[in-house]
Amino acid sequence: MTKHIIISLIIFTISFSGQNETLDFQNTESTKSIKISKILSPPIIDGLLEDAAWFDVPNISDFIQDEPYNMAVPTEKTEVKIAYDEHSIYIAARLFDVFPKEITKHMGRRDGWRKVMMSDWFSIEIDSYHDHQTAFEFLVNSMGVQFDDMVFDDSYRNTEWNAVWEAEVSFDEHGWNLEMRIPFSVLRFSNDSEITMGINLNRYIQRKNELMSWVVFPRGQAGIASKFGHLEGISGLENQKKTLMISPYVTQGIFNKNNHILSDPDKTDPTDKYNEPKWGNEFRLGLDIKYLITQDIVNDIAL
User: What's the pTM value of the predicted model, to 2 decimals?
Assistant: First the structure.
């Protein structure tokens, strides 16, 4: 009887200790931080990363694999630089790939979720209020197609949110590169003299189904913005006044009518021989309009 009691107490102690460790981890946000560099002259957003503005900005390269092997070392190297001036945040990224010809690329219209996600892509998520509940994501795929969304309640994403920002990509023998410019006018932040924002960086390699991020937690940990690291040292921003931003976009592509029966009224039997595929050009023109009334009120229009 005594032996059974001792063994039971040992098992209970181990189990209770393990539960405490898990709960402590769940309640701990990331301690990673970046001291952002302020630049005097903004870089040209061309995707080439050759601008002198980047020379003294340190690299961020400590990415962790999230999928498919959670918390593992990524299979490819990633280097990111982040800088700012009184108008915008600037991002430069080198996305190394040992087989650059195998980088997955799909062209599509802006905010076309399916085409963007079928490619390699990179994104930055910014909790500009630093409230650990909301964030804005800016994503660009390997063809330079942009996508943005907003995180709310630390759990959900609003893909209808749109902002006006810039991104360009380039390719070389080492992989692909990108540059981004995100105006402070599309973010919401406090009027403090020095501002800290939440941040995370993400990269996806489509052919490997590999997602890596700057901040990664073990699977099963709830939350999005509450897990972010910290972007520190932002100061001296211009006073954000009423701003009207207009961003036109153009997409062009080729389509193929695969339903030959519908394209030929004389063919009604699927066993009949089909006509030759009918090819055509697809052209789309649109506008993203954003009117910043205050730091809390923005009118978004997509045409």
Answer: 0.74
Contacts of 273 (CB under 8 A, 6+ apart): none
Name which of 202, 205, 251 is nearest 64 in CA terms.
202
Three-state SS for 52?
Answer: helix
End-to-end CA distance of the chain, in Å?
Answer: 78
Q: Given this model, what pLDDT does residue 12 score?
A: 32
Q: Is the pLDDT of residue 17 over 90?
A: no
Neighbours of 110 (CB within 10 A): 19
- Catalogue all structural domains in the chain, each as residue range(s) with its CATH number: 29-235 (2.60.40.1190), 243-302 (no CATH)
What whole-number distance in Å separates Cα of residue 277 and Cα of residue 258?
Answer: 7
Burial class (CB in 10 A: 0-12, 13-18, 19+), 186: buried
Which of 20-29, 130-139, 182-191 is predicted most confidently?
130-139
C-beta pairs of 127-131 under 8 Å, 24+ apart in sequence: 127/151, 127/197, 127/198, 127/199, 127/225, 127/228, 128/187, 128/188, 128/189, 128/197, 128/198, 129/188, 129/189, 129/190, 129/197, 130/189, 130/190, 130/195, 130/196, 130/197, 130/198, 130/230, 131/225
Whether residue 22 has pLDDT greater than 50? no
Do 82 and 93 meet the contact criterion of CB atoms below 8 Å apart? no
| Encoded tokens for 200 | 């995370």
Q: Which amino acid is at 295?
A: Q
Closest CA to 292 of 173, 148, 189, 175: 189
